[in-house]
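ugh ok so i messed up the first submission bc i forgot one of the chains. this is the corrected input, ALL of the components this time, i swear. 222 residues overall. if the numbers dont match what u have on ur side tell me asap before i send this to the collaborators (the ones from the other lab, u know who)
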Amino acid sequence: DTAVSQTPKYLVTQMGNDKSIKCEQNLGHDTMYWYKQDSKKFLKIMFSYNNKELIINETVPNRFSPKSPDKAHLNLHINSLELGDSAVYFCASSLTYDTGELFFGEGSRLTVL
Amino acid sequence: ELKVEQNPLFLSMQEGKNYTIYCNYSTTSDRLYWYRQDPGKSLESLFVLLSNGAVKQEGRLMASLDTKARLSTLHITAAVHDLSATYFCAVDKDDKIIFGKGTRLHILP
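and heres the new structure output, hopefully the right one now
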């Protein structure tokens, strides 16, 4: 069983469209994250949720809206996609918000044309 | 604002050689992590360092933490091709885990 799973793995879409990425973890962790990895492989935190509550929102444009229906799921919806949104988006989880070892999903590669 | 700097960012080395990757960070933290990423893959946790002086070893990799110097090292002993990957350090501060830019390690046979 995959511990942290993301879908879809690949998205190719046009500028201006809206897309969503889903993430689920079966580790029983309390905290989930979204990270963005750009073409230079730099990893930047976007959001974190602890038990469905937003705890970090790292100056991300409000076109990005995370949603956590329960502590095992953290989805990412992106409105009005721009070229600069092209990246790999990684979901991750940790046991709690203050135990930082992260367990990553496989990543979702978003290409905006 | 916490800054995490790794060097070198790119390293090409021969099999059998030893080398060290350095990770400096700008504010106090007692928790540091090392991750490995293979091309096109996810990140895998290698080491969790939770206190000053912590040293952990796994195979040919050894990580250490000096919180007073705000420095962690990842030492590679007798490198083998299978260790080719990108290595990230990450520092935990105020519940944010901030990553360095990664060190792309290429080991030549």
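quick check: Chain A is about 0% helix and 55% strand. that seems consistent at least. Chain A touches chain B through 24 residues (CB under 8 Å).
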